Amino acid sequence: MEMKEVFELVEKQNQWRMKECINMIASENRMSEAAEKVYMSDFMHRYAEGSPYKRYYQGAKYIDPIEDKTTEMTRKLFGVRQAELRVLSGGTSNMAAFAALGGHGDILMSPGLMGGSHISHESFGIAGILGYRVEHAVFDEKEYNIDTDATLKKIRDIKPNVVTLGGSVILFPHPVKEVREVCDDIGAKLLYDAAHVLGLIAGKQFQDPMKEGAELMTSSTHKTFPGPQGGLILGNTSDEMWKKLQSKVFPGLISNHHLHRIPAMAITIHEMMEYGKEYAAQVVINAQALGQATYELGFDTLAEEKGFTKSHQILINVEKNGGGTDVAVKLENANIVLNKNLLACDADRSASDPSGLRIGVQEMTRIGMKEPEMKEIAALMKKVVIEGKQPEEVAKEVVEFRKPFQETQYCFRD
Fold first, then answer.
1. Residues 330, 391 contacting (CB under 8 angstroms)
2. Per-residue pLDDT, 350
3. What is d(CA 140, CA 344) in angstroms, rounded to the nearest whole number?
4. Are 181 and 291 in a shared domain?
5. 233 and 247 in contact (C-beta within 8 Å)?
6. Is the pLDDT of residue 309 over 90?
7. Co-location of 215 and 182 in the same domain
């Protein structure tokens, strides 16, 4: 590959995804220009092993106060005792937390893939790598949520060492308070994976797992929380446990923690303090509006009786339209980018051939779209999926639809 081709492909990506697509991957977002400005800095070339003011490298006199104060702001934003910013992803956050809470031979209960787990919660992911025996909560397919009573009974019966709630597919709040009470009875630790809903939690538009009893909360920082790609761990735990967890982060898992993320996190935290409530509220409103609009246009949108969602996501069963893989490809060709996803009814199906779509509205909300635009998005999807129009023709409509929505909202401007 020649250098010219690299530049050309990057420019094509920027034009296509930033200006011409309806981006609805539920695990993506975009930073503000202010955050991007500090993201691209000399910090991206540097190392600062250790923690602020306790480094193993020289040259950290400017990252020290930034990281120290950003950690303090993070604790304030989420109302917690402890915050760890050095983890590089949600998966790394889970690995550090799982390693601190237990390990080989212990039992970890997760929601399970059918219930929305992240792959890191499972026996074929990080939990399995660490030697956990993985069990699953009981999932209520009709309610599209964890079956609280049945899960509490299972916890009492199998006595897991660690229980993980939250995950990658989460339409409704999980029963954190109820699970915590049973965990206390059996001596289990409770962790909440907030990767997808961190921004909604920051904006006080979703459950607050830490106030409801989670001991640790792991997350990525780039989904509903519109920061740089990276990870985060929050704690309301003992000093002893926190010290153990931090040792798993450094020197256990991470040497250098990619310093340029930290100033961008600082800007994003300031933005969420200022605009987070308004932004998160609109995200939930938009998700519910898209759920209603797709349902009314003939899609098999799940959880209709519960208002479709209380998060940024909706789920659609497109088995009758060709299945998740086929439909997701057609929509991408129409410049509507989302992902295929297993649904609770897909116990006998492969993740490469699921019946569902997972759709997130957080990025389109970030550029100013509201309820009328959600109806337009549903109509564009219908043209491709139900009416069978050529995706390439619909893509032209999508490009026109995107033209008024180019600037990032809910953020600081120069």
1. yes
2. 86
3. 9
4. no
5. no
6. yes
7. yes
pLDDT in tens, 159-201: 999 999 999 999 999 999 999 999 999 999 999 999 999 999 9
Report the candidate in 256, 233, 259 with the shortest Cα–Cα distance to residue 246: 233
pLDDT surpasses 80 at 414: no
- Residues 263 and 295 grouped into a single domain: no
Domain containing 306 equals 276-402
The angle at the Cα of 175, spanning 169 to 177, to the nearest 5 degrees, equals 140
DSSP string covering 51-107:
ETTEESSS--TTHHHHHHHHHHHHHHHHT-SEEE----SHHHHHHHHHHHH--TT-E
Q: How far apart are CA 245 and CA 243, in angstroms?
A: 5
Burial of 151 (0-12, 13-18, 19+ CB in 10 A): buried
pLDDT, residue 289, reads 98
The whole-number pLDDT of residue 134 equals 97
CA nearest 322: which of 340, 337, 336?
340
Has residue 26 been placed in a domain?
no
In sequence order, the 6+-apart residues with CB closer than 8 A to the CB of 10 are none
* Tokens, residue 407: 């600037």
Burial, 255: exposed, middle or buried (Cβ in 10 Å; 0-12, 13-18, 19+)?
exposed
Contacts of 64 (CB under 8 A, 6+ apart): 48, 52, 53, 55
User: What single-letter amino acid sits at 185?
Assistant: D
CA max distance for the chain: 63
Q: Which of 67, 69, 102, 100 is nearest to 85 (CA)?
A: 67
